[in-house]
């Protein structure tokens, strides 16, 4: 199978492409490698992809929000399916730089939908986010819940992506699957995520800023489980059969949560980081940040029932795995 993957130099994109190449697929990767976080990490990921993929991995360095450039770059290439993971990430950064989210997450998503439409792809899987659940207090979060009250612009753009996808599934009958990711972590992770930030601060002897006075819970999901869910989704396009899909659509469009189905205390994670790094945390307890939520918890019944997705609860091993990779990457 030939797969187009956006966000190829990102955490999930890199990990997905490694898995696709390992099973024999060919991949066209797209990324603009911007400086939202250290581009050297993105280049290191790309080097690994080139090494593993050889002539089965093609990389296109471009901004998929530029429609003309995207169409021109893809013109010589063929692909059967798309996994659209590229986006401007980060809940907090969306408060500082809203226009970046409009370009990447809205304009960019429409551009990929148009590519899927005109190239008549068999299936497009795209990244949504657990942040769409906003201020929902019902736990665990289910794909059947209303998600009309986002707490950040990032969340609003991801909800908008789901709505635009529903429209394209209706108008053009494109098979589409949206995946709401829950706090992904593991080797090759993102430097703007809590696990990386706290690990860096522990090794540097710096204070850890812990919001909501430590009363924070996240459905931490190890990268291997995320990739298993993405690949299973990619391999199983939703049928255009008029039946209700996960998330409520009657079109060939479905939504799945991909999480660990277990909310872990942030303080428990800090304890695991202390053990793995051999350092004692100096903690500064702070109020809740704007746009953040105190708890995430994924109901994964829909994806488990349809695709057999079963994550392995592994935070006790997953956190040390990340720290071991971090030490190796930084030569500590």
Overall description:
It is a single chain. With 332 residues, the protein is α/β, with parallel strands linked by helices. The protein has one domain: NAD(P)-binding Rossmann-like Domain (Rossmann fold). Helix content is 42%, strand content 16%. A 7-stranded parallel beta sheet has the order 3-2-1-4-5-6-11, with helices on both faces. The chain has a two-stranded parallel ribbon with strand order 7-10. α2 links the parallel β2 and β3 (57-61). α1 crosses α8 (223-234) and α7 (194-204) crosses α9 (266-277). The longest helix is centred in the N-terminal third of the chain and has 21 residues, at 98-118.
Secondary structure elements and pairings:
Blueprint: E1 2-6, H1 11-22, E2 26-31, H2 39-53, E3 57-61, H3 67-74, E4 81-84, H4 93-96, H5 98-118, E5 123-129, H6 153-172, E6 176-181, E7 184-185, H7 194-204, E8 208-210, E9 217-218, E10 221-222, H8 223-234, E11 253-258, E12 264-265, H9 266-277, E13 283-285, H10 301-307, H11 315-330
Parallel strand pairs: 1-2, 1-4, 2-3, 4-5, 5-6, 6-11, 7-10, 8-13
Antiparallel strand pairs: 9-12
Helix pairs in contact: 1-2, 1-8, 5-6, 7-9, 9-11
Give me some keywords for this one:
alpha/beta, 332 residues, Rossmann fold, seven-stranded parallel sheet, two-stranded parallel sheet, single chain, 11 helices
The CATH homologous superfamily is termed NAD(P)-binding Rossmann-like Domain
Percentage of residues assigned to helices? 40-55%
**Spatial order of the strands forming the largest sheet:** 3-2-1-4-5-6-11
Name of the CATH class: Alpha Beta
Radius of gyration, whole Å: 19 Å
Quickly count the domains.
1
Q: Please write the string of helix (H) and strand (E) elements.
A: EHEHEHEHHEHEEHEEEHEEHEHH
Give the tally of β-strands: 13
Sequence stretches where pLDDT stays below 50 over 5 or more residues: none
Secondary structural class: alpha/beta
What value does the average pLDDT take?
95
Which topology does CATH recognise? Rossmann fold
Strand composition percent: 15-25%
CATH architectural type? 3-Layer(aba) Sandwich
Terminal Cα separation, in Å?
A: 40 Å
Q: What summary fits the major beta sheet?
A: 7 strands, parallel
* Shape estimate: globular
């Amino acid at each position: 199978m030939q797969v187009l993957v956006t966000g190829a130099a990102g955490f999930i994109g890199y990990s997905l492409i490694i898995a696709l190449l390992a099973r024999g697929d060919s991949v066209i990767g797209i990324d603009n490698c911007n400086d939202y976080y250290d581009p050297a990490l993105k280049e290191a990921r790309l080097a690994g992809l080139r090494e593993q993929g050889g002539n089965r991995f093609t990389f296109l360095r471009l901004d998929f929000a530029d429609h003309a450039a995207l169409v021109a770059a893809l013109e010589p290439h063929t692909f059967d399916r798309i996994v659209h993971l590229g986006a401007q990430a980060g809940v907090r950064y969306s408060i500082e730089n809203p226009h970046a989210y409009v370009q990447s997450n809205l304009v960019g998503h429409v551009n990929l939908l148009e590519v899927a439409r005109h190239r008549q792809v068999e299936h497009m899987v795209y990244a949504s986010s657990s942040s769409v659940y906003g201020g929902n207090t019902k736990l665990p979060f289910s794909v059947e819940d209303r998600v009309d009250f986002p707490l950040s612009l990032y969340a609003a753009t991801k909800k908008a992506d789901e709505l635009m996808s529903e429209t394209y599934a209706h108008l053009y009958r494109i098979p589409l699957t949206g995946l709401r990711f829950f706090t992904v972590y593991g080797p090759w992770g993102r430097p703007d995520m809590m696990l990386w930030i706290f690990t860096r601060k522990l090794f540097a002897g710096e204070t850890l800023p812990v919001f909501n006075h430590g009363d924070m819970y996240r459905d931490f999901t190890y990268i291997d489980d995320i990739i298993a869910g993405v690949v299973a989704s990619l391999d199983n396009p939703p049928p255009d059969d008029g039946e209700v899909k996960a998330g409520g659509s009657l079109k060939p469009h479905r939504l799945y949560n991909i999480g660990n189905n277990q909310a872990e205390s942030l303080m428990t994670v800090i304890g695991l980081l202390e053990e793995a790094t051999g350092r004692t945390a100096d903690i500064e307890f702070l109020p809740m940040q704007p746009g953040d939520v105190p708890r995430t918890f994924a109901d994964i019944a829909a994806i488990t029932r349809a695709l057999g997705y079963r994550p392995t609860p592994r935070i006790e091993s997953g956190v040390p795995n990340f720290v071991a990779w971090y030490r190796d990457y930084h030569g500590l």
